[in-house]
């Protein structure tokens, strides 16, 4: 009940894509993404294979969507790319009145109102199973290096486009079913998520075990000198002035990427209000800009922090 309703036509078919490596929103180039893959411990051969297959599959997915929106002209389709994906390739390649690209909000709120989910190697199949939204996978487009087994396990997989479209036609013709997910899906989800409230304890234990094992410690590289220089400059000039100078020196694309990662007091207030409404705790939390007076060095306040506090005037937590 706390989930907002996306502003679009009801009973849409939701398409979730997962190609941040070859269609990046925040990374500057393909080379930077390959470096990121290599830094995760993968070989150069695997990185190149992944990028090659992801590029090919990304193009094939766009071709499939174009055929689907043409085959079902009366059905509305919403494409929600991975949060780290750029939307431009889809907006430029898919032009149809019954199709739109949306990236705001969370995957859960879009799934909550969707009639069907189409995805390939995307873990939103987990949420789809929990919300009893059929998850369809065009498996004939999949590649071994891209495959996500759990996603496939929770989806209906198709070996060819004909059977895929036939099944999609049947799902589109049905009324939306809001009942709970199947016992099979629930058992898979529970095994994967272990929803017992003790995830933080397990994570903490793994971290403590690793810290106690001297042989497993990784020697971190030293930070580049430019980061130290920026830190010293920011300390002397204050955040506002140093940030202004940094923006002047940065290319517009990088500034836009950074800006798109920010969130506002209004966005956080909306989430808090929905939670309070659904739990009958309305008015228990105040959301506001964090005052620089709470900092020992006021000049270092970024102006981007948000304060979450009880109804008492003093802020006790901030992000």
In short:
This protein has 319 residues and is an alpha/beta fold. The chain has helices at 30-39, 44-71, 88-93, 107-112, 124-130, 149-153, 161-173, 183-193, 199-212, 225-237, 239-249, 252-259, 265-279; strands at residues 12-17, 77-81, 99-101, 114-119, 135-137, 156-157, 285-289, 306-310, 317-318.
Would you mind describing this structure in some detail?
This protein is α/β, with parallel strands linked by helices and about 325 residues long. The chain has 13 helices and 9 strands. The chain has helices at about 30-40, 45-70, 90-95, 105-110, 125-130, 150-155, 160-175, 185-195, 200-210, 225-235, 240-250, 250-260, 265-280; strands at about 10-15, 75-80, 100, 115-120, 135, 155, 285-290, 305-310, 315-319. The strands form 2 sheets. A 6-stranded parallel sheet has the order 3-2-1-4-5-6, with helices on both faces. A 3-stranded antiparallel sheet has the order 7-8-9, with helices on one face. The longest helix has 28 residues, at about 45-70. It is globular and about 65 Å long. The model has no long low-confidence stretch (mean pLDDT about 85).
Properties at a glance:
alpha/beta; three-stranded antiparallel beta sheet; six-stranded parallel beta sheet; 13 helices; 319 residues
């Amino acid at each position: 009940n706390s989930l907002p309703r996306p502003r679009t036509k009801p009973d849409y078919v939701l398409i979730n894509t997962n190609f941040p490596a070859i269609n990046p929103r925040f990374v500057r180039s393909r080379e930077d993404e390959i470096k990121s893959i290599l830094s995760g411990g993968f070989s150069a051969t695997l990185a190149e294979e992944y990028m090659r297959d992801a590029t090919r599959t990304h193009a094939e997915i766009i071709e499939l969507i174009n055929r689907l929106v043409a085959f079902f002209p009366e059905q509305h389709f919403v494409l929600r790319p991975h949060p780290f994906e750029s939307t431009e390739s889809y907006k430029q390649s898919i032009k149809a009145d019954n199709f739109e690209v949306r990236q705001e909000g969370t995957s859960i709120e879009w799934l909550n109102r969707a009639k069907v989910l189409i995805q390939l190697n995307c873990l939103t199949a987990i949420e789809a199973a929990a919300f009893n939204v059929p998850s369809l996978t065009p498996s004939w487009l999949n590649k071994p290096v891209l495959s996500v087994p759990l996603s496939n396990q929770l989806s209906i997989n198709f070996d060819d486009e004909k059977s895929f479209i036939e099944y999609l036609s049947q799902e589109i013709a049905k009324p939306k079913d809001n009942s709970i997910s199947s016992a099979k899906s629930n058992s898979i989800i529970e095994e994967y998520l272990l929803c017992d409230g003790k995830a933080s304890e397990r994570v903490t234990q793994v971290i403590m075990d690793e810290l106690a094992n001297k042989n497993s410690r990784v020697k971190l590289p030293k930070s580049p000198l430019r980061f130290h220089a920026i830190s010293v400059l920011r300390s002397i000039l204050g955040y506002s002035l140093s940030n202004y100078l940094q923006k002047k020196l940065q290319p517009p694309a990088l500034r836009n990427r950074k800006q798109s990662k920010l969130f506002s007091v209004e966005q956080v207030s909306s989430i808090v209000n929905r939670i309070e409404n659904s739990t009958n705790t309305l008015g228990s939390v105040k959301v506001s800009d964090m005052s620089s007076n709470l900092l020992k060095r006021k000049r270092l306040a970024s102006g981007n922090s948000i304060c979450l506090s009880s109804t008492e005037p003093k802020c006790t937590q901030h992000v």
